[in-house]
Design goal:
The complex is a heterodimer.
Chain A (H helix, E strand, L loop, with lengths): L1 H16 L15 E4 L1 H8 L6 E7 L4 H16 L3 E7 L6 H10 L6 E4 L3 H8 L6 E2 L1 E6 L4 E6 L4 H13 L9
Parallel strand pairs in A: 1-4, 2-3, 3-4
Antiparallel strand pairs in A: 2-6, 6-7
Helix pairs in contact in A: 2-5, 3-6
Chain B lengths: L2 H13 L14 E2 L18 E2 L5 E2 L1 H4 L4 E6 L5 H19 L2 E7 L11 H11 L4 E4 L4 H6 L3 E2 L1 E6 L4 E5 L15 H10 L13 E3 L9
Parallel strand pairs in B: 4-5, 5-6
Antiparallel strand pairs in B: 2-3, 4-8, 7-10, 8-9
Classes of the chains: A alpha/beta, B alpha/beta.
Chain lengths: 176, 217
């Protein structure tokens, strides 16, 4: 009870201390955003411990990316054990907008910002990717890519790809 | 051919895909969108007339230069295009002076991106200083025929009409002063000089082209 009262009091103090803002407050604090190249991203998606991994490359300026974001997050949250890796392709000076967008969508996990030239990043993730955004890659538990597409997807497509990845023979047992 | 043989052949054709006789597909699960025009190909839909920002119809054929033709898929709204647009204007205007015809095509559905409507194109061409044709692909069929997926995306054809370069403007959209690879400018110079293009393909991020809905057949 004391903890609840303390946290409520703290929240009230922080709310009063915060400067007046014109935009609605973010749903969550802005998550850490780390710079990463394709090699680093691939090592993340291939790390053991997940039943499947969904990698989404997006940008704040990309309309279809913004449009599909809620469906992407909802699909990942519906499947326990599925790892979501979000990589922004925004320019470095757009980092505040990236943080704001993530916070508004309730993303609290660490996310990534593309940190190498486009061509190396694109081909490093998948040579068949043209560079068009958004791009989604789905991997099974062994790190094998089982789906990839360019362009906006709906909830059904995300769900189907995750189901496919978790059904994959190599996803039956999650590597410790 | 008697009736039994015809039925047997029809059944074999129907079952061929199941027997693995169908054309090879992409890797399982991969759907990278339309496949871009292959190097060495000629431009599709060369004679399709598209309304330019000066109100006149322009086709790829009519925009072609004696030494080659540069087809650029661009638009107004995309930050990647905006980052490159002054370089696109400079490069495109210079290409035309070198005998390489230039046509910039906007295939986006303006319902999805209002900024990409015709009035926006007229204003952008004036603002940035495009002296080449900037046209509306009113059905998005030209983009489909090229397999163009995003903006900006360049297709450069040589004097014989063969595709010799496909890809990005250069290797740094954000900072012109930090460019190391001037892929498109180098390719245009090579084509204008009648020489082989050193780097025929490159990639960069871009905004996915929002095609207009296909008309039902």
């Amino acid at each position: 009870m004391l903890a609840v009262l303390t946290s409520t009091w703290l929240a009230a103090v922080l709310a009063l201390a915060a400067p007046a803002a014109t935009a609605p407050p973010p749903a969550t604090p802005a998550p850490p955003v780390l710079r990463a190249d394709a090699k680093r991203i691939l090592s993340l998606v291939q790390a053991p411990g997940a039943r499947a991994t969904v990698l989404n490359v997006w940008a704040t300026w990309c309309g279809p990316c913004r449009a599909e974001f809620p469906a992407l997050l909802a699909a990942a949250r519906r499947h326990p054990g599925v790892r979501l890796v979000l990589v922004s392709a925004d320019f470095d000076d757009q980092l505040p907008a990236v943080r704001r967008f993530l916070a508004q969508h309730g993303v609290s996990q660490t996310t990534y910002l593309k940190a190498e030239p486009d061509q190396a990043f694109i081909d490093g993730l998948n040579p068949t990717w043209s560079g068009s955004l958004p791009a989604t890659f789905v991997f099974d538990a062994s790190g094998k890519r089982v789906a990839f597409w360019e362009g906006e997807a709906d909830a059904h497509r995300f769900e189907a790809a995750i189901e496919q990845a978790t059904r994959s023979a190599s996803s039956k047992e999650v590597r410790p | 051919m008697n009736r039994r043989i015809r039925w047997t052949l029809a059944a074999l054709l129907a079952l061929a895909p199941l027997a693995g006789l169908a054309p090879a597909a992409r890797a399982q699960g991969d759907d990278a969108g339309p496949k871009a025009l292959a190097l060495g190909s000629v431009a599709p839909m060369r004679d399709a007339a598209m309304k330019s920002v000066d109100g006149k119809p322009v086709s790829i054929a009519s925009a072609a230069g004696p030494k080659g033709t540069l087809v650029l898929f661009i638009c107004n709204h995309c930050p990647w295009v905006k980052a490159w647009q002054s370089r696109i204007a400079e490069l495109g205007n210079a290409a035309a002076r070198q005998g390489v015809g230039v046509i910039a095509i906007n295939s986006n559905d303006p319902v999805a991106y209002p900024e990409d409507d015709y009035d926006g194109m007229v204003a952008r061409a004036k603002e940035v200083g495009y002296t080449f044709a900037y046209v509306v692909d009113a059905t998005s069929d030209v983009a489909r025929a090229f397999g163009a997926t995003h903006t900006p995306e360049a297709f450069l054809f040589d004097a014989r009409g063969k595709l010799v370069y496909h890809g990005a403007v250069d290797d740094n959209a954000h900072d012109a002063s930090a460019v190391h690879e001037h892929w498109l400018a180098d390719a245009v110079s090579a084509v204008a000089a009648g020489k082989p293009v050193a780097t025929a393909e490159s990639k960069a991020m871009g905004c996915g082209i929002r095609y207009r809905a296909e008309k039902s057949q």
